[in-house]
Amino acid sequence: MMNKMVPALLAVMMGATTWLAGCSSQSTNTQISTATVIGSVPSETSDNALGEKLDYKIIGIDAGSGSMVKTEEVMNLYGLDKWQLVEGSDAAMTAALIKAYEAKEPIIITGWTPHWMFKKMDLKYLADPKNGFGGAEQIHTIVRKGLKEAKPAAYQFLDKFWWEPADMESVMVQMIEGKDPEVAAAEWVKNNEAKVAKWVEGIQPVQKEKLTLAYVAWDSEIASTHVVEHVLEQKLGYEVELSQVQTGPMWAGVAIGDVDGMVAAWLPSTDASYLKKFGGQIEDLGPNLDGTKIGLVVPSYMNISSIEDLQ
């Protein structure tokens, strides 16, 4: 297997694993400085407004991701002109969240489910009365045009791939507890042979054909992509190359045929702009997971319940 993973994944693995082991120090080489984000936040008992406590910052992830694009739209919808959406990564966002949570300080992040942070911390979504983020979504499998004819075994498997949020979460938790994504994926496949057998039933394996998959450095997509990679290699005989990129290049790579596919398209809302741009150049095989959600997330100890409270 060839894997073009970048330091963001290593950062979230080391940072979250250190936290889970009970250590208080966190470090990550990302654009967000956790000391800057929460180091000077006044006490919850001060008379300052929440916005002033947080320096009017909402902690986001990688620029250009569907989650960030949608959050900017929602901020405009609610007139949050004073607030700034801070760019970073999944690793930086979770590091900032962990530090704030340990200190019981306020913080607002762009969040989504499935995600391991909801299993490890008591968090809540802010109500979205204007439905700016939309309702529950699905994660879709997207492939390049012509894949059905060029690599029929891979196409058939990707078309069958379907799992539940609990499946994805179990892989993510193993990763955060210190296992490499490849190991966590392999263990999940071993423990779920009946489900995997249905994915590959009736598909003729190949002899070391090359296949490229793109994904973004979100724990959810790291989990799903590594499970798919493991099945393609161990059950169907492919040599899989993983390309970790940002959301826009992921979609563009499939559209122009530089990569064969991805299992990381959040639709119909989060990645709507990319589907509109590239929809005529790709093939949508439909959902591989149902019941996802994005929104603004805060620790449950915060005395705030709605996005309207930020106005």
UniProtKB/TrEMBL annotation:
Which Pfam families has this protein been placed in? OpuAC
* Coiled-coil ranges from the UniProt annotation: none
Q: What processes does the entry annotate via GO biological process terms?
A: choline transport; glycine betaine transport
List the GO cellular component terms.
ATP-binding cassette (ABC) transporter complex
Domain of life according to the entry:
Bacteria
Sequence ranges assigned to domain ABC-type glycine betaine transport system substrate-binding in this UniProt record: 49-191, 210-311
An MF annotation (GO) of this entry:
carnitine transmembrane transporter activity
Localization = Cell membrane
Q: Where are the transmembrane segments?
A: none
- Sorted UniProt keywords: Cell membrane, Membrane, Signal, Transport
Q: What is its main location?
A: membrane
Keyword Methyltransferase found:
no
Q: Which SUPFAM superfamilies match?
A: Periplasmic binding protein-like II
Please state the span of the N-terminal signal peptide per the UniProt entry.
Answer: 1-21
Cross-referenced InterPro entries, in alphabetical order?
ABC_Gly_betaine_transp_sub-bd (IPR007210)
Q: Which PANTHER family match?
A: GLYCINE BETAINE/PROLINE BETAINE TRANSPORT SYSTEM PERMEASE PROTEIN PROW, GLYCINE BETAINE_PROLINE BETAINE TRANSPORT SYSTEM PERMEASE PROTEIN PROW
| Entry protein name | Glycine/betaine ABC transporter
> What organism does the record attribute this protein to?
Brevibacillus fortis
Lineage, top ranks? Bacteria, Bacillati, Bacillota, Bacilli, Bacillales
